[in-house]
Amino acid sequence: MSFLRRFTDAITLEESDGMKNKDLVPIPIDRRKWGFPAYLWYWGITSLCAVTWSAGSSLLSLGLNGNYAMGIVVIANAIISIAAALNGYYASRYHIGFSVYQRVIFGIRGSCIGVLIRAILSVVWFASQAWLGGLCVNVILSSWSKSYLNWENTLPESVPMTSQELCGFVIYLVLTFPFLMVPPQYLDSLLAVATFMIFFMGIGITAWAVHFNGNNYGSLMNEKMSLSSSDMGWAWMYGLSSWYSSLTSGIANQGDYSRYNKSTKGCMYGIVLGTNLTGFLVPLFGILTASALYDKYGTYYWMPNDICMRWLQDNYDSKSRAAAFFCGLALVVSQQGVNTVGNCISGAMDLASLCPRFLNIRRGSVLVMLLAWPTQPWLFYNSDSVFLTVISSFSVFLTPLIAIYICDFYVIRRCKLKISHCYISSKESIYWYNNGINWRSIISFAVGVAPGLPGLINAANPSISISSGALHFFQGSFIFQFAISFCVHYALNLFLNETVGEPDKTDLFNTYKPAECKHYNLIPYSTTNSTDPAIGASEKVFSEEEIMTVESVH
């Protein structure tokens, strides 16, 4: 046997083939561990992280004051919670993730379109959040050592980062690695701890800032605005779109964690409450703190880690060091929560679906972490790079996808999916469409994306002028693109819905509890195995041939 063959055999996952492995099939009963609190923590940490703290600045830059900005946050969060709940229900019902669902939408072969878009976004956002996590690590280390706080940079000026930043980044990645070894169904504990820590940190920093400013929260909340009624309307529209864009990846990722639910109701309630309750607080903390500190320092502090470093630079005493340490610890833990769950594992699921024989969630997570280096996130923060602006506008691509998912699942398929056929790579699958590609979804996606591209180009390079119509479309893209893709997808499928099919009659993957099998009219997993002894033991992943055998028997 050749070395290459031995190496391939060594890294091939157990019970895997070209379509699936244990992480891609529907979640079995013993891994469905997320209840209502877990989804509350999931959206809690998504809404309470450091990036969201600074998001209020983008709303104020539109010419709005704090009160109007918070009004936008409330409305946008309501929209986001509805979109996330709708987009997560397919996974809550059938217990498959985002990557497998792409096979339903784009076809067995065409699924790589949606998977690659989100995989790229996950890698970039992981790298960006990891760099920010490294800055938070530096807060902790600076509170321990004044020498570290004043560490003189030894890197060449041509390198757009300092020695201290590089050290913090490396330490953050080292701290991340153990969390990547934890199965996703157990990460709700990390999210709970992170949510509580960052919540109380936010209260503490905000209370300190207002007290430090003489119990005055400054002028940002009630600042006079000079926008015309038309400009005000488009500022609101762009504000809603901007806030929605900042959380579109969370909406798209929802299916990856809804599949771990104990009950559908608990999942849906957790999504809605988590988004609307916690999503309101941190932008408010950020605006109040920035407003209060502006009166004292003459500059706006939008990042909590910068505030902590200012404490240490102004007065390196025991109180400042203790406050910086505990706030830095809360920030690091929150960055681990939001980055591991929201970016790394989601990206890993995408990579696993592209190469299921060799990549599972654990291996894919490590690969996403390693890709943080070639992504060079230090350029996002320490140079004039517009890449982060472009990535922040990636909702131009994700919004049409979300519209197609919702239209396809609720309107076209009436919530009926034949999950077993997601793992058949031949024309026997109803999701084979045209040689494995669903051109209707691709057309719906392209038609929805195209009108938003001029605005995306302008965001990347403002010197390129675009028409006012194209600009306004981009400002309201989360509504306009959604409507276009939804309507086009519905129209294309109106007379071409022969691939809808009926749900499976058997629980092939030990996914459902006995009561759920009864509710959904499914033959239980144990019955399936006993009916066909050739299939084997009760804990296994079926092959394509076995799936079709069970279907023919039942």
UniProtKB/TrEMBL annotation:
<keyword id="KW-1133">Transmembrane helix</keyword>
<feature type="transmembrane region" description="Helical">
    <location>
        <begin position="232"/>
        <end position="252"/>
    </location>
</feature>
<feature type="transmembrane region" description="Helical">
    <location>
        <begin position="68"/>
        <end position="91"/>
    </location>
</feature>
<keyword id="KW-0472">Membrane</keyword>
<keyword id="KW-0812">Transmembrane</keyword>
<dbReference type="InterPro" id="IPR001248">
    <property type="entry name" value="Pur-cyt_permease"/>
</dbReference>
<feature type="transmembrane region" description="Helical">
    <location>
        <begin position="273"/>
        <end position="294"/>
    </location>
</feature>
<feature type="transmembrane region" description="Helical">
    <location>
        <begin position="112"/>
        <end position="141"/>
    </location>
</feature>
<dbReference type="InterPro" id="IPR045225">
    <property type="entry name" value="Uracil/uridine/allantoin_perm"/>
</dbReference>
<feature type="transmembrane region" description="Helical">
    <location>
        <begin position="477"/>
        <end position="496"/>
    </location>
</feature>
<dbReference type="GO" id="GO:0015205">
    <property type="term" value="F:nucleobase transmembrane transporter activity"/>
</dbReference>
<feature type="transmembrane region" description="Helical">
    <location>
        <begin position="437"/>
        <end position="457"/>
    </location>
</feature>
<dbReference type="Pfam" id="PF02133">
    <property type="entry name" value="Transp_cyt_pur"/>
</dbReference>
<protein>
    <submittedName>
        <fullName>DEBR0S1_34200g1_1</fullName>
    </submittedName>
</protein>
<feature type="transmembrane region" description="Helical">
    <location>
        <begin position="386"/>
        <end position="411"/>
    </location>
</feature>
<feature type="transmembrane region" description="Helical">
    <location>
        <begin position="189"/>
        <end position="212"/>
    </location>
</feature>
<feature type="transmembrane region" description="Helical">
    <location>
        <begin position="40"/>
        <end position="62"/>
    </location>
</feature>
<dbReference type="GO" id="GO:0005886">
    <property type="term" value="C:plasma membrane"/>
</dbReference>
<feature type="transmembrane region" description="Helical">
    <location>
        <begin position="161"/>
        <end position="182"/>
    </location>
</feature>
<comment type="similarity">
    <text>Belongs to the purine-cytosine permease (2.A.39) family.</text>
</comment>
